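Hi there, hope your week has been kind to you so far. Thanks so much in advance, here it is:
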Amino acid sequence: MAGPASDYHRGEMDISEQQSTFHLVMGITKWGSLFLAALLLLLVIWFCTPNGFLPGFIAAVVIAVVGVVLLRSKPAH
């Protein structure tokens, strides 16, 4: 026997909440990864090389600036 009829119709659901959640998760992932990469670079140069804090901080700032320039949202055409 066939199952009960459903009220679901493909393509008629409002997906704006799912889209905003997806964009939020992707943004957190993107910017969180950049933050972790800069922090990891800072800590590795600071503690695992004889250079110290200042070169590590400079390298972390450089990677953060380059990351922001490359990862920011592009304007839509």
